[in-house]
Write a structure and sequence with these properties.
By secondary structure, the protein is α/β, with parallel strands linked by helices. It has one domain: Metalloproteases ("zincins"), catalytic domain (Collagenase (Catalytic Domain)), CATH 3.40.390.30. Helix content is about 50%, strand content about 15%. It has five helices and four strands, in the order βαβαββααα. The chain has a four-stranded mixed beta sheet, with helices on both faces. Strand 3 and strand 4 form a beta hairpin. Helix 1 packs parallel to helix 4.
Length: about 140
């Protein structure tokens, strides 16, 4: 299950994001898990990035795992403004970019880490595998804020 809090103004297909979360959970063997998704603008994600990671710049996605009851994984926060720029730059839709960022955030919540190059390759391969369940032609998986 996914609870979505849309705190920005751009039109976003919330039903599609719900489907993306369900497909990702099934792919991870975690169909009974829960997550919160918050959609924000660049200003808000920059403030969160500074507060929780000490990085004073915007980013595309943040993931906050919870150490609480097992079915609740945590929260994913996505900057829709950054996602929109990345989608334009990479030549795919905002919806496809949001799918990618949500999957990326969910993978972080279950323990994937992209700071090490080897682990990043594993994480991006898993993203591509999950995206292929959603799209006949998955978007490119390069996303750098």
């Amino acid at each position: 299950m996914i609870a979505i809090d849309n705190r920005q103004r751009r039109p976003v297909d919330l039903a599609r994001l719900g489907r993306t979360a369900r497909v990702t959970f099934r792919a991870l063997g975690a169909a009974d898990h829960e997550v919160s998704l918050t959609l924000v603008g660049d200003r808000r994600i920059r403030a969160l990035n500074a507060r929780y990671r000490g990085v004073r710049r915007r980013t595309d996605v943040l993931a906050f795992p919870l150490d609480g009851p097992a079915p609740v994984l945590g929260e994913v926060v996505i900057s829709v403004e950054t996602a929109e720029r990345q989608a334009r730059r990479l030549g795919h839709s905002l919806a496809a970019e949001l799918d990618l960022l949500l999957i990326h955030g969910l993978l972080h919540l279950v323990g994937y880490d992209d700071r090490d190059p080897g682990e990043a390759r594993l994480m991006h391969a898993r993203e591509l595998e999950i995206l292929s369940r959603l799209h006949a032609r998955p978007p490119r998986t390069l996303h750098v804020a």
